[in-house]
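Subject: Interface between my chains keeps coming out wrong

I've been trying for a while to get a sensible model of this assembly. When I model each chain on its own everything looks fine, but I need the whole thing in one frame so I can look at the contacts. Pasting all components below, labels as-is. Any help appreciated, I'm running out of ideas.
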Amino acid sequence: MALADARAICPDLATRPADLTREGAALAALRRFAIRYSPMVARDGSDGLIADITGVPHLFGGEEELRTDLHARLERAGLTVRSAIAGTRGAAYGLARHGSGIVPEEGLAEGIAHLPVSALRIDADTAQALQRMGLNRIADLTAQPRAPLARRFGPHLLLRLDQALGWQPEPVSPEKDAPRFSVRLTLPEPIGLQGDVMAGLSRLLDRLCETLAQLHRGARRLRLDLHRVDKEMVQVEIGLARPMREPDRIAALFAKGVEEIEAGFGIEAMRLTAHVTEPLAPVQLEGGASERREDALSDLFSRLGNRLGFDRVLRLLPAESKIPERSFLLAPAAYSEAEDPPPRRGPERPIVIFPPEPVMIGGMSQPGHPPARFRWRRMSFTTLRATGPERITPEWWFDDPNWRSGLRDYWRVETREGPRLWLFHTPQNPNWSVQGEFA
Amino acid sequence: MRPEPELEQMLSLAPSRVHEAEGLGRRAFALFQAARHDAPLVWVLAPRAEHLPMLRGLPDGVGDRLHVIRPASETDLLWAVEESLRANPVGLVIAEPSLPLSLTAGRRLQLAAEAGRTTGLMLIREGQGSNAAETRWHCAPVAGDARDSTLHHWSLIKNKKGTTGNWNLHWNGATAAFDLVSAAGQRHRAAETAR
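Reply #2:
Try treating it as a single job with all components included. I did that and got this:
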């Protein structure tokens, strides 16, 4: 039905756009839940799941009990479901979508005979053509000779019919689970000593790093959950300056966090999760001196980042801008690569830059030239020589509050007192400020 | 003309030790030393410092090796310096403590520098150094007579294992090379006769 028609019939209809991504995620979550009924569960279309429960029902007490259990659990979760159990995948599909229930193994043909032909997973055109010929139910179809049907509707219809009736095999192929980088350790006796926790952690790390190595991945962030006897949970989380899977080097970073946790009456279970991972190809371990140096450097950044925060361990990267403050970027060293600095050309730049600090002008000066005498940071300076001006205009496409005063004329001012300063004048809003210091 | 090797030796910092520099030209001195080290560099800025090294103004080959650390407190700063000094691959650690360094802190940093075989350079405010420092330099930019001159006056005011000294030199802030200016009355050894 079109949305306009539906609204005409029911003006109060609440509508929402379909979010296919989230629906898919919900179905995937439901699939993980359904693994409790069978190891072989797969998504069936966008709105269903199919499970191969061969050999399973007796664990629940029978097919009827299994189905009741499934419905009860999903109802508790607030879901309305329809389900069917049948001897073939095709029959179960049709029955679940057109009525529901259980079809016993021996009565398969009779059990699905009353279903409409559209239950056979055929396209709408074929179903419509069949209905036009008066073949409404599966029973009508099975009574027809096969050859004319195949000639008229193609082999697909007969394949679906055969699959529903069990004359053609159709296995359930469960999807591959996404790898989970999570390991846990349950302890027979609660532990409370730091050394014991570290020993447990190293066992967990060995297992986790093995999994990571198999899948060619490296951990970037790790979390250690410690379950205490009193049902409390403590967490220790660390970040790594680059993807890594060496147990010893990761354990060293946990030491500080483990030192600080409160064990209470003891810890009875540990769980280690690498919740952020990145691809990491296998490397030759017997690396040269440069690789060892790089390893040690990234260890240092991991240590610094874990205490100070990774946004405080920075690297300077060149940027495309004439505005002095934006001519370079401060990027976290753990998440960036060093880049060659831009070639040295154009007017000289100071070694240190700071937010503009206004200067107090004393004495007269030529208009448009730096003041002959000025005070800055409670020091007086006399201009000896000034080089400039270098005019920098604000980037009009970028509204920077610091550049509201308009364009700037930069001068390199050598003072009689020694310091070589980077002064600028804002002609549109006459004022002098210092923004940097030269070597 | 390249300065004599002895002078180069005098202006370089002893390895595996922590040194101090004060005065208005201390950052220029730090970058001069950075250009003369060839390993990764760490620059720990003062907590809440507003200034930053400007990438385009740094000496050649320093910008891509430099790592800037902005700690939140003075304790974090000292800890970061100690950790960086203890790390073997780092060549030079430059730090700007904003409080006077205690003897304990200075000694800890010396031990860390020895353990990691890393050189440290503390950019201190005048009179805020620690007695544990190996050398202390007073650095000041000097107004030059000629155009485009970048004259510096660097004096070694404390040295645990040698003599002190004064140097006037031109260093333009672009490369590791410098040009010594011989100032009358500041020669520290007898003049050689021309050959």
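Reply #3:
Confirming on my end. Chain B has four helices and ten strands.
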